[in-house]
Amino acid sequence: MKSMQKSLIIRGMIFLHFAVMAALFFGFWNCFYRQLLHSEVLWRNDLVFSGIYTFLLFLFSRVYNAYKVGLLRVGELVFGHTLANLLSLGITYVLACAIAHRIINPLAGFGLAAVQLVLTFGWVWLANQLYFKLNKPKRTVVIYRSESDLRKLEEIRNFDRRWKIEKQVKWQEGNLHDIPWEDGLPGGTNLSDIHRLINIMKDYESVFVSGVNATLRNGIVKYCVESRKDCYFVPHTGDVIISGATHMKSFAVPIFRVRRSRPTPEYLFVKRAVDIVLSLVTIVVTCPLMLVTAIAIKQYDHGPALYRQVRLTKDGRPFEILKFRSMKIDAEKDGVARLASENDDRITPVGKVIRAIRFDELPQLFNILRGDMSIVGPRPERPEIAAQYRQELPAFDLRLQVKAGLTGYAQVYGRYNTEPQDKLKMDLMYVNQASLLEDIKLMFATVQTIFQKESTHGISDGQVTASKSEREISIGSSERA
User: Fold this and answer.
1) Residue 29 DSSP symbol
2) What letter does residue 371 receive in the DSSP assignment?
3) Which DSSP state fits 72?
4) Each residue of 157-212: pLDDT tens digit?
5) Which residues of 109-128 are buried (b: 16+ CB within 10 A; e: fewer)?
6) Are 118 and 59 within 8 A, CB to CB?
7) Which of 430, 329, 337, 435 minimizes the C-alpha distance to 387?
8) Which domains, from first to last, does the chain contain?
9) Which helix (H) or strand (E) is 405 found in, with range?
10) How far apart are CA 1 and CA 34, in angstroms?
11) pTM for this structure?
């Protein structure tokens, strides 16, 4: 079966599921809620609220990748659908209460959510089975430079129904070593140039590339495009910077312009307004939670509830960040600035709880209100740790083109201990595409990360930073020391 036909079948299933979710909402609304809103034209209310729900469901389904069949596990897809549906129902319910000027009984809504969850679980399982029946695992070759570059691609093993890794090829200073995938050790037959490499790739359907130089990588990509093969590669920092280039139409030849981030005044004004409004509202809503957290910290060891620490924001300007203290009072009595490790004995019992549910970050809402931070932006680093990263990555300060944020691209799509180079790439991806729509998307996507335990994992025991030079294996993202 041709790829277009396979795609149409899966898209048809997606459309069917989406249509059923919208129809269920319309039916429940007609049965339980339409009479609660006083209106002479009830059908108009039906259409308006069904339209609002459908739009929100479409938006959140995209934010949480709810329809990425074949790319995510069944559990991840069900969780994405559940989160998207609950948010859509919740917002629609709040709007209905506001228009009705009273609290509407939510029991019917809970019943609807339960019915949709059962149907969604069945649909996800069926769609996944159909996808892998239509799409057999692709024979795949991995091309890499060093062992750490190879380990960056280890997660491919979790998708053995999508890619069947049969060979790995190690490139090093113009030489290639042909290695069986299962061995994972250097050695083998020397291969000299791109033509020999093409001779290997021709037998495979997919190619993964990590760490090889740009010239060789470009040759691989060009060949894969010409040969209709899928090519996946880990970008260099320069690739990410260039991805934000602007096409200059003033010249008769193709010319791209790359320059420092220059967001429009309108965007900056709206972004600041959103920061002020949302931080104020959130402070008011979470005030009782912050009070309970502060009391718990104080009662445990009678130390201060808040922890102040110097961080860097836009253009390297230092500011004092506020956090709930999750570590012992003398956590850094040796004077060494370090990130939290996986089994860090400096973290208190109360600290473990508030870090797991992210309550330690709540005081940063006051930093946002003051203008030191934004809701969305690269996470602020400590000057000492930033200096260490800068020695390994001279381009590390490029992430300071925008104001530091409470959440960001690296926090949503990475994990606690992401290697600085990968963290920099993620932050630059945000800098290149910063917009109000992207900010809103990242805000809602952050909700999903709260329930993902791996996003709070620390660095390995004995490390000071997440630097590549301090460990063999790179893992995942955000800084929360």
Assistant:
1) I
2) T
3) B
4) 888 899 999 999 888 765 666 555 444 433 333 445 688 889 889 999 999 999 98
5) beebbeebeeebbebbeebb
6) no
7) 337
8) 3-134 (no CATH), 138-234 (3.40.50.20), 266-470 (no CATH)
9) strand 405-407
10) 46
11) 0.81
